[in-house]
Amino acid sequence: MSIRSTLAFSSRRLALAAAVLAGASLLSACAPLVVGGAMVGGMMVVTDRRTSGAQVEDQAIELKAVNRIREVLGERGHVSATSYNRMVLLTGEVPSEQDKLAVEQAVSRIENVRSIVNELAVMGNSSLTSRSNDVLLASKVKATLIDARDLQANAFKVVTERGVVYLMGLVTEREANRGAEVARSVGGVQKVVKVFEIISEEELARLRPASAPQGGSGGGSTGQ
């Protein structure tokens, strides 16, 4: 190959690389539109089982919840609100039962919230060390779910508080039980609480991308 041909080929490769980087930048700028997606064979495959509208609403609910909780508690508690398919999980610590109820009522009034699962503990705030350990533990649980080849890991949302793992998602009964089993196998997990919206095998078949693992059957439940 001549020097001129080599230079032309290198230029084409640089141009292609620049185009790829530009595309990545555009995707980053539009992150909410591709949340829950995975790259397969160069194509984006959406694996989040919620509708795009529900994903956007969940983000809005969580943002609004921060302000509502601050209005109720100020700096007196440590509360996290996690929304999945418009179901809100409240975790953390509050000073009193009255505060626990007040937080639940405030968040329940947010537009589009369907239901509240109130797991707030009446106790002093957890330490920064405890919260750091929770972040690490959640990462381990997520990694273990990914390693479980009979599960679609992205169907599960993992929330960890004081060593207790809360699992959320649109899953079948089989997936719920298997996901809880996998989470319990992780060292440091004190307890697993299932906060799922259970769907049937038929519903899963309509939601599942073609490459996703097979699921089971079920009704609706929230349990441990």
Automatic annotation (TrEMBL):
Keywords: Signal. Residues 52-124, 133-200 form the BON domain. Gene3D superfamilies: 3.30.1340.30. It comes from Caldimonas aquatica. Coiled coil: none annotated. InterPro entries: BON_dom (IPR007055), Lipoprotein_DolP (IPR051686), Transpt-assoc_nodulatn_dom_bac (IPR014004). This is BON domain-containing protein.
